[in-house]
Amino acid sequence: MTAASTRASAGPGRATRLRQQLRERLAHARLGGPAVIAPGIYDGYGARMVAQTGFEAAYMTGNGVSACLLGRPDVGLVDLTLMSGHARRLAACIDLPLLCDADTGYGGVVGVRRCVEEFEAAGVAGIHIEDQASPKRCAQLPGAREVLPFKSAVAKIEAAVAACSDPGFLVIGRTDSAASCGIDEAIARARAFEAAGAAAVFVELKGHAGILDDIRRVADALTIPCMVNIDAGGPLAGLHTSALHTYGIALAIYPSLVRSSVGFAMRGALQHLLKDGSTSAARARMLSSSEYNDCLGLPEVERWELRFPE
């Protein structure tokens, strides 16, 4: 996909088309096809990079958005308005399905209804809602997470599904219960989310030795797609994308890949400037001005200007 094509395909029905496109791919992956790979992004620049590299989908990571917008860790500081507004801008600059972290749904079942309305209006393909108790914390931070009672967790997914105005909008039920309550409880919640109408299920796991066995158990217990955070680490870290489907993974997200890589490169470049007094040492690892402008779609902007000379 070129930078120019990201805007050319925008128009009425675009969000519905992308949602249906993702649903069809996930259905194929659920039946043994290759998993959908969705790198994590947190701004429009990264979103366009993902699209132009050739991926099928992108994932807006709440951890990354908290870092990008607030410069703070993912401990529940980003609210619905910030997340959905940011998602709208990201979805508008790419012609790819965008999945978004919607945290706990930003309240009870009434808050969940508004959450779905806002993200649907933002044009994203879908969201995942987790069962953590407030205040939430990123699941990959140290320690177990307190989760809602079973019935309350399921009620949020039921409310989210009922709130959808577009039946193609994906509501993904996420449970963080495995760390504190065990994998059996997580599977029970995943099955209840499926019964509640979730389009897919996301069991958040940390990179322990038996994580691949746990993922396989989750996938085998469901008839809907299984979503996995590959950045959880452990045995997942070296798992090739071509092998994901063998464990029942239909959708793989990589939330920290871009944000951690950018942070590493940014720190190195700044240290070079501070130490060397120039940017010479960093030049070989920088985009050229032309590459940067192409990524942002400058050629398409210039063609548009030529169509309407003043």
Helix and strand arrangement:
Layout: H1 3-8, H2 14-30, E1 36-41, H3 44-53, E2 58-60, H4 62-70, H5 80-92, E3 98-101, H6 109-121, E4 126-130, H7 150-163, E5 170-175, H8 178-181, H9 183-195, E6 200-203, H10 211-220, E7 226-229, E8 251-254, H11 255-276, H12 289-295, H13 298-307
Helix pairs in contact: 5-6, 6-7
Descriptive key words:
310 residues, alpha/beta, TIM Barrel, 8-stranded parallel barrel, 13 helices, disordered N terminus
Q: What does this protein structure show overall?
A:
The chain is an alpha/beta fold and 310 residues long. The protein has one domain: TIM Barrel (Alpha-Beta Barrel). It is 48% helix and 12% strand. It contains 13 helices and eight strands. An eight-stranded parallel beta barrel has the order 1-2-3-4-5-6-7-8, surrounded by nine helices. β6, α10 (211-220) and β7 (226-229) form a beta-alpha-beta unit. α5 packs parallel to α6 (109-121) and α6 (109-121) packs parallel to α7 (150-163). The two termini are 30 Å apart.
How would you sum up this structure in a few lines?
This protein is an alpha/beta fold and 310 residues long. 48% of the residues lie in helices and 12% in strands. 43% of the residues are buried.
Task: Look up the CATH topology.
Answer: TIM Barrel
Strand arrangement across the biggest beta sheet? 1-2-3-4-5-6-7-8
Number of domain units:
1
Strand content: 5-15%
Which residues sit in consecutive blocks of at least 5 with pLDDT less than 50? 1-8
Continuous helix count: 13
Which percent bin holds the helix content? 40-55%
CATH superfamily: Phosphoenolpyruvate-binding domains
The main β sheet shows up as:
8 strands, parallel, barrel
**Class derived from helix and strand content:** alpha/beta
**Beta strand count:** 8
Q: Report mean pLDDT, rounded to a whole number.
A: 94
> Which term fits the overall shape?
globular
User: Regarding quaternary structure, how should these chains be classified?
Assistant: single chain
CATH class bucket: Alpha Beta
What is the first-to-last residue Cα distance? Answer: 30 Å
CATH architecture: Alpha-Beta Barrel
